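> example.struct
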């Protein structure tokens, strides 16, 4: 990852969401992006130029645009029409983002469009976040990484965030993923945890 002092940046054309520029690079603010917060609060995963990424819950492309600055290609899945309009604007200026308007819970809808990926990133803030990740693991290479941004309050309002966190981890382990990192994203994002897993080699 590229740091200028203690500021995380990415190298690409600015002006995507009025982000600050520093030394010609785009400042990747941990308060605006959970993935950025993971690099501040925990370890995360090194993004490299050869990587292919499947990104679920692309929204208006804020985080997608930074990821695209680092990697080869980002398949960006979003099902809501309004953020998709903004995402398309971002795609116009970055050639390596493939926008896909689809429900991440139904990966069969976009299976013909997506190649095997090195990183599966999920930030959909839905009740069935673990199930959605597991369905999309079919696209992930063996040895590849999953980053799940878990919104612990929206998954089940009757459960404590810590309970949601542990139930989600249990589901991922039961499905054969190897958990590498568990990081709460406070103070940047309240009630959000990042879960980083590896899909084992065969
Ligand atoms: N990842 C974004 C970022 O950092 O810039 C923010 C994502 S926002 C918290 C969650 C997004 O997931 C929303 O735009 C929502 O429309 C989308 N979403 C929720 N459920 C989805 C689903 N099943 N399929 C596709 N997109 C979904």
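> example.seq
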């Amino acid at each position: 990852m590229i740091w200028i002092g203690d500021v995380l940046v990415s190298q690409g054309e600015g002006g995507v969401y009025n982000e600050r520029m520093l030394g010609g690079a785009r400042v990747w603010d941990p308060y605006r992006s959970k993935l950025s917060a993971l690099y501040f609060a925990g370890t995360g995963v090194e993004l490299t130029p050869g990587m292919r990424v499947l990104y679920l819950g692309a929204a208006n492309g804020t985080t997608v645009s930074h990821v695209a600055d680092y990697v080869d290609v980002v398949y960006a899945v979003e099902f809501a029409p309004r953020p998709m309009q903004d995402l398309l604007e971002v795609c116009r200026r970055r050639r390596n983002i493939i926008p896909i308007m689809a429900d991440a819970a139904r990966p069969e809808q976009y299976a013909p469009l997506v190649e095997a990926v090195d990183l599966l990133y999920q930030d959909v803030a839905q009740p069935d976040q673990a199930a959605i990740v597991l369905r999309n693991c079919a696209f992930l290479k063996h040895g590849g990484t999953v980053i799940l941004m878990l919104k612990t309050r929206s998954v089940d309002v009757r459960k404590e965030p810590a309970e949601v966190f542990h139930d989600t981890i249990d589901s991922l382990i039961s499905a054969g993923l190897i958990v590498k990192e568990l990081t709460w994203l406070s103070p940047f994002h309240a009630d959000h945890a990042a879960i980083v897993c590896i899909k084992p080699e065969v």
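> remarks
The mean pLDDT is 95.
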